[in-house]
């Protein structure tokens, strides 16, 4: 009988999923878009995540399944082209997130070598190397993946909370503190769109759904795990954003966009602080890559089991689902082809779309799950409006990102349509699941 997951462990899963590589990768991007209003952008994105976590909590309690989001979408819409397209998008979004984490690792890694004067290695080599290394660990032992994640969650939280404590103290008397005042904020539209570009930093709470079958006292603890983890991370991100904007000039932030959190530690702690945050970033992104490779391969396996992808994906390679190798190779392609903003935009588009659908599932099944239709309905609409705002903003500033994101979404549904057209009806053994 599997060991039951206690509330604190469930909260750790949610917090660990959110505070992965996302905050290290997108903080500089958010600040360049929102300027002094960056904390507001994180609040807006967090509010949408909190609304969505309500729907997830109700669905997780009513339909506990290690398939998590895949199960919810299938439960709400049945197994078909639409649900298959959404679940394919979930898998691809995992790949996009992996590329984001790897890109962040590649941006922070050269900082350690800069102290020796050696910066000759391209960041893409670091990014590719860490993906290959993490893939090897996943093939070697899933137990090792779990141990790395457990250590990383505690370590990165201790470092980030220490950064926040010292940073808040250091704000007093800092000449850049005034940058947080409303006169330095961008327009409301830009605050919203900046929040949506960085929405990927919140998506990890959905990992709680995969652990729902093993959470003890689920009637109370599932809901608490979602709400506590999301609220904690919202507060953490807002404080980190305040410390960053209040410690560095906007030109300094722009110059260190890819590793701005480490740069923000310099005014308070000097080179030691810069180095400690860099190490935390490397550890966080590495652990996030480890865990996301595992999660992505399982999503691929689940959708194949539910006849929403070719059954060849249920095959094994070196005692792991073939999806692990495919996910790894696709990540290597993405991180070496796409720019950071394009990766972040594609990831946010994918998860905003998916979360809008999950909220809609909770709205449609509100009687069965004993949920509040208004909260789920507002969550679905909020995700949809945020998605439109993100696309509109990116279309004016980075049109290529929109084309990439749109191609991914359309491609997922088109692939599912073609697959269903070729699938023999007798194979639909999970139709009434």
Structure explained in plain terms:
With 433 residues, the chain is mostly helical. It has one domain (7-422): Amino acid/polyamine transporter I. It contains 18 helices and two strands. A two-stranded antiparallel ribbon has the order 1-2. Strand 1 (316-317) and strand 2 (320-321) form a beta hairpin. Helix 5 (81-114) packs across helix 18. Mean pLDDT is 88; it is low at 426-433.
As residue ranges, the low-confidence spans are 426-433
In helices, the fraction of residues equals over 70%
CATH class placement? Mainly Alpha
Which oligomeric form is depicted?
A: single chain
CATH architecture level-2 label: Up-down Bundle
User: What is the alpha-carbon Rg in Å?
Assistant: 21 Å
Name the CATH homologous superfamily: Amino acid/polyamine transporter I
Biggest β-sheet description: 2 strands, antiparallel
Count of DSSP strands: 2
Structural class of the helix and strand makeup? mainly alpha
Query: What are the secondary-structure elements, in order, as H or E?
Result: HHHHHHHHHHHHHEEHHHHH
The end-to-end distance, rounded to whole angstroms, is: 24 Å
Domain module tally: 1
CATH overall fold name: Amino acid/polyamine transporter I
Instruction: Record the strand order, biggest sheet.
Output: 1-2
**Mean residue pLDDT:** 88
Strand content: under 5%
Q: What best-fitting shape do the alpha-carbon axes yield?
A: globular
Number of helices: 18
């Amino acid at each position: 009988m599997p060991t039951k997951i206690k509330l604190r462990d469930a909260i750790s899963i949610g917090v660990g999923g959110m505070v992965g590589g996302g905050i290290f990768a997108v903080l500089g991007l958010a600040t360049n878009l929102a300027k002094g209003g960056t904390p507001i952008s994180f609040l807006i994105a967090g509010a949408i995540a909190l609304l969505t976590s309500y729907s997830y909590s109700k669905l997780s309690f009513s339909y506990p399944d290690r398939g998590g989001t895949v199960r919810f979408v299938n439960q709400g819409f049945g197994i078909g082209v639409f649900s298959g397209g959404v679940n394919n998008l979930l898998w691809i979004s995992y790949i996009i997130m992996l590329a984001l984490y790897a890109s962040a690792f590649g941006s922070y890694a050269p900082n350690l070598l800069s102290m020796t004067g050696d910066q000759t290695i391209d960041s893409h080599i670091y990014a590719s190397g860490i993906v290959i290394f993490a893939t090897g660990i996943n093939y070697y032992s899933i137990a090792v993946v779990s141990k790395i994640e457990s250590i990383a969650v505690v370590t990165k939280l201790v470092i980030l909370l220490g950064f926040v404590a010292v940073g808040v103290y250091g704000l007093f008397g800092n000449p850049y503190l005034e940058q947080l005042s409303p006169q330095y904020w961008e327009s409301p539209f830009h605050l919203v769109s900046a929040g949506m570009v960085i929405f990927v930093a919140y998506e990890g709470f959905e990992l709680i759904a995969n652990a729902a079958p093993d959470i003890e006292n689920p009637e109370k603890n599932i809901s608490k795990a979602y709400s506590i983890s999301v609220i904690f991370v919202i507060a953490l991100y807002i404080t980190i954003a305040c410390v960053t904007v209040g410690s560095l000039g906007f030109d300094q932030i722009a110059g260190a966009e890819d590793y701005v959190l480490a740069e923000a530690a310099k005014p308070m702690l000097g080179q030691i602080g810069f180095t400690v945050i860099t190490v935390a970033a490397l550890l966080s992104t590495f652990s996030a890559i480890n865990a996301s490779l595992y999660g992505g391969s399982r999503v691929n396996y689940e959708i194949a089991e539910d006849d929403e992808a070719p059954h060849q994906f249920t095959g094994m390679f070196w005692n792991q689902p073939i999806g692990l190798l495919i996910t790894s190779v696709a990540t290597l392609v993405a991180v070496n082809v796409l720019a950071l903003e394009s990766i972040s935009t594609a990831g946010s588009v994918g998860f905003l779309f998916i979360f809008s659908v999950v909220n809609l599932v909770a709205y449609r099944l509100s009687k069965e799950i004993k949920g509040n239709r208004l909260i789920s309905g507002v969550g679905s609409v909020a995700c949809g409006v945020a998605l439109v705002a993100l696309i509109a903003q990116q279309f004016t500033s980075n049109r290529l990102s929109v084309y990439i994101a749109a191609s991914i979404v359309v491609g997922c549904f088109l692939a599912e349509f073609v697959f269903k057209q070729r699938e023999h009806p007798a194979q639909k053994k999970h139709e009434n699941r």
